[in-house]
Design a protein that fits this description.
It is built from 1 helix and 2 strands. It is mainly alpha-helical. The chain has a two-stranded antiparallel ribbon with strand order 1-2. The chain is rod-shaped, with a radius of gyration of 35 Å. The relative contact order is 0.08.
Length: 119
């Protein structure tokens, strides 16, 4: 499984500021209109309006913004939870370490006392 992909820098949502009117051309024998060819444009002409591509780009931009917003909200929600868990983990680990140290010291003291008792 692959993890989430890194997000590109956040960009504002694009807005359509100009209406593009497409010329209607027909194919052979009066068939349905054909979309203009990308390589048929002249210098200075704008590329043909592609609604599907625009929708895809806008959805992609909105998805990035939603992902960033959700990530920020999750981070804000998890900070206190992770803080409490780490504090509890530190307390538990410190308690276990203290118990192990007490046992080690008790064994060392018992060993030292037994050495001094034997003539």
């Amino acid at each position: 499984m692959s993890g989430p992909q890194p997000l590109p820098p956040q960009r504002p949502i694009p807005t359509l500021t100009e209406v593009v009117h497409l010329p209607l051309s027909t194919g052979p024998q009066g068939a349905a209109p054909l979309p203009p060819r990308a390589d048929a444009g002249h210098a200075g002409q704008r590329p043909a309006f592609n609604e599907e591509e625009m929708v895809r780009r806008i959805l992609c931009d909105v998805q990035r913004q939603v992902d960033l917003m959700v990530e920020n909200q999750l981070r804000e929600a998890f900070v206190p939870i992770i803080s409490r868990l780490s504090d509890a983990l530190i307390r538990e680990t410190a308690g276990q370490l203290a118990a192990v140290l007490r046992e080690m010291v008790a064994r060392a003291v018992a060993a030292e006392v037994s050495r001094h008792r034997e003539p």
